[in-house]
């Protein structure tokens, strides 16, 4: 029972991080219908800037630099590459992001060389003992940060002008344009938000507690688990992204313990397949069902 | 206020939709744009509101001028900020958002918070049902209510010129009458209206002036009263005595020469 509880805490901790990444996919998809395959490389760039600036700026300063650069890179990608081809099909733009992902990832991997640097943490790395449970602080902080960011996001999405404009554009691009909603601005802010969230996520991913590995190609593949999270939640559902993130985190943690560590990655995709067979547009997705 | 000169528009590389449309509308008036399916009515409105590009269309020649300024190269958001707002065909309310949020989305183009509050009060006065159903999802409203929401949403940015694309489409006759009254009311409050309609009876009753588009050209233009009296319009759009659309068209072709002679009407030659 204690093992189980501990796994649940670990799973929710990981899930909170996946939720941040999945939310990024969903926000971009809602604004533009483009699936951003370059999300993993945004994560790497954020992490890399933390590694480079940590010695001079300290952890907090470096974390801010990393988060902001991931956000700015996302905006640059949107402004310089995607917005130039407004009429291109969303699928071709998705292919463009795959190419971009390869370029950025290989460059960061090349710069890292043989090093696999941990990003470190601003909190004590000692686990906390509660009763018989061993809780990692990184997971607890991830749950806290995830809860705060997700709540802030949903409040903004529901009540701010940005959120109204974003949802209006997601639902009907032409009607939104007729209302004077600036589609370029909505799209750029969607990418910015996704980039910032990716920058936050990497602070947790490349740590001893979370993955046992520093910043490397492996960080990119861990970030990819946010894909099944977004897809099984429903690509156009923000709530689905959060639920999907938690499902993926828990699936990984539980299957690694009770089945085998090597199986945990495929378990995530198995769960995704099962969900898609039952509900083709994901748990909370609506897009496909409303189109038919 | 709004002037369209020799406008030619095509979709993609080859599909020409407008071959030379001319029209103008004075501030404080209602202009009806009549024509059958495929005459280019919706294309005309898309060009004015700048959404043509979303349909892969482009302006080949001619120009659209609003308040002395060319607007055919501007993007839709800028055109809204100049005071030209469109209500798309088929209403297209944001079905998954609440009535209130739909109005809010319409007000994003408004300049100040005060302007928004004023506009919302005006919309609620014009359409009390939108205040009653503020929290309801727009997709659950009836067709008539959705049309009112679509118009109310457009009024949220206090436009100087309102473009309505077939507001009567798919609505019961009683509701169509109500929409006609509302258009007059909006006009009385000082907003000019371009009303694109297949329902010529309602459109000509509401409008001061009217133009008839035929296959992408301005075929006739004049005051609403003159057009109502013209034989062609009677036959083609007001359910005159023609037995079918085909015979009506044949008769119309025969009558083409007489058209120009009809008192008070000017014939546009592309």
UniProtKB/TrEMBL annotation, chain A:
CDD domains the UniProt entry points to? TM_PBP1_LivH_like
The listed locations are: Cell membrane
Note the InterPro entries from the entry. ABC_transp_permease, BCAA_transport_permease
Q: Does the keyword Membrane apply?
A: yes
Q: How does it sit in the membrane?
A: Multi-pass membrane protein
Q: Which UniProt keywords apply?
A: Amino-acid transport, Cell membrane, Membrane, Transmembrane, Transmembrane helix, Transport
Say which domain of life the source belongs to.
Bacteria
A Pfam short name: BPD_transp_2
Q: Where are the transmembrane segments?
A: 12-29, 34-51, 57-77, 140-159, 188-210, 222-247, 267-286
Keyword Disulfide bond included in the entry's annotation: no
Q: Which PANTHER family match?
A: ABC TRANSPORTER PERMEASE PROTEIN, BRANCHED-CHAIN AMINO ACID TRANSPORT SYSTEM PERMEASE PROTEIN LIVH
Tell me the protein family, please.
Belongs to the binding-protein-dependent transport system permease family. LivHM subfamily.
By what name is this protein known?
Branched-chain amino acid ABC transporter permease
What species does this protein belong to?
Actinokineospora xionganensis
**What does UniProt list as this organism's lineage?**
Bacteria, Bacillati, Actinomycetota, Actinomycetes, Pseudonocardiales
Automatic annotation (TrEMBL), chain B:
InterPro entries the record matches: AAA+_ATPase, ABC_transporter-like_ATP-bd, ABC_transporter-like_CS, BCAA_Transport_ATP-bd_LivF, P-loop_NTPase
Q: Which UniProt keywords apply?
A: Amino-acid transport, ATP-binding, Nucleotide-binding, Transport
Specify whether Nucleotide-binding is a keyword of the entry.
Answer: yes
A Gene Ontology molecular-function term?
A: ATP binding
Pfam families for this protein: ABC_tran
Q: Where do transmembrane segments lie in this chain? A: none
Q: Where is the ABC transporter domain?
A: 2-240
Recorded hits in PANTHER family, A to Z, give:
HIGH-AFFINITY BRANCHED-CHAIN AMINO ACID TRANSPORT ATP-BINDING PROTEIN LIVF
- Which family does the record claim for this protein? Belongs to the ABC transporter superfamily.
The protein's name in its UniProt record: ABC transporter ATP-binding protein
User: Which source organism does the UniProt entry give?
Assistant: Actinokineospora xionganensis
């Amino acid at each position: 029972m204690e093992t189980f509880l501990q796994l649940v805490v670990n799973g929710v901790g990981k899930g909170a991080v996946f939720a941040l990444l999945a939310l990024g996919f969903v926000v971009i998809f809602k604004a533009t219908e483009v699936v951003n395959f370059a999300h993993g490389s945004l994560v790497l760039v954020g992490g890399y800037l933390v590694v480079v600036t940590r010695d001079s700026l300290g952890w907090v300063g470096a974390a801010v630099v990393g988060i902001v650069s991931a956000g700015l890179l996302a905006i640059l990608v949107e402004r310089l590459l995607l917005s130039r081809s407004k009429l291109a099909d969303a699928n071709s733009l998705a292919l463009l992001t795959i190419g971009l992902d390869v370029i950025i990832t290989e460059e960061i991997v090349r710069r890292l060389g043989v090093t696999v640097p941990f990003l470190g943490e601003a909190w004590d790395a000692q686990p906390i003992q509660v009763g018989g449970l061993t809780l990692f602080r990184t997971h607890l902080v991830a749950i806290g940060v995830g809860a705060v960011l997700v709540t802030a996001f949903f409040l903004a999405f529901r009540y701010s002008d940005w959120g109204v404009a974003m949802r209006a554009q997601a639902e009907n691009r032409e009607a939104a344009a007729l209302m004077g909603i600036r589609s370029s601005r909505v799209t750029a802010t969607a990418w910015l938000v996704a980039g910032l969230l990716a920058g936050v996520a990497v602070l947790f991913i490349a740590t001893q507690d979370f993955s046992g590995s520093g910043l490397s190609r492996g960080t990119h593949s861990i970030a990819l688990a946010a894909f099944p999270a977004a897809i099984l939640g429903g690509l156009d559902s923000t709530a689905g992204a959060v639920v999907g993130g938690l499902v993926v985190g828990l699936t990984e943690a539980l299957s690694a313990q009770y089945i085998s560590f090597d199986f945990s990655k495929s378990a995530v995709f198995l769960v995704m397949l099962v969900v898609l067979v039952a509900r083709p547009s994901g748990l909370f997705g609506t897009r496909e069902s409303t189109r038919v | 206020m709004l002037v369209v000169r020799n406008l030619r528009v095509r979709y993609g590389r080859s599909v020409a939709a407008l071959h030379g449309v001319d029209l103008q509308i004075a501030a404080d008036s209602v202009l009806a744009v009549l024509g059958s399916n495929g005459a280019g009515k919706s294309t005309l409105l898309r060009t004015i509101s700048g959404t043509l590009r979303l349909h892969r269309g482009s302006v080949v020649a001619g120009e659209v001028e609003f308040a002395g300024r060319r607007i055919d190269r501007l993007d839709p958001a800028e055109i809204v900020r100049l005071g030209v707002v469109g209500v798309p065909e088929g209403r297209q309310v944001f079905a998954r958002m609440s009535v209130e949020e739909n109005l809010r989305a319409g007000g994003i183009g408004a300049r100040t918070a005060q302007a928004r509050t004023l506009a919302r009060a005006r919309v609620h006065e014009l359409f009390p049902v939108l205040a009653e159903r503020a929290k309801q999802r727009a997709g659950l409203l009836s067709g008539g209510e959705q049309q009112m929401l679509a118009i109310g949403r457009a009024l949220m940015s206090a436009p100087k010129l309102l473009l309505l694309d077939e507001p009567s489409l798919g609505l019961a006759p009683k509701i169509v009458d109500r929409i006609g009254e509302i258009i007059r009311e909006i006009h009385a409050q000082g907003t000019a209206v371009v009303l694109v309609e297949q329902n010529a009876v309602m459109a000509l009753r509401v409008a001061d002036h009217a133009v008839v588009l035929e296959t992408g050209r301005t075929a006739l233009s004049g005051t609403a009263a003159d057009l109502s009296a013209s034989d062609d319009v009677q036959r083609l759009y007001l359910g005159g005595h023609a037995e079918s659309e085909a015979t009506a068209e044949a008769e119309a072709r025969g009558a083409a020469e007489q058209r120009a002679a009809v008192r008070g009407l000017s014939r546009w030659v592309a």
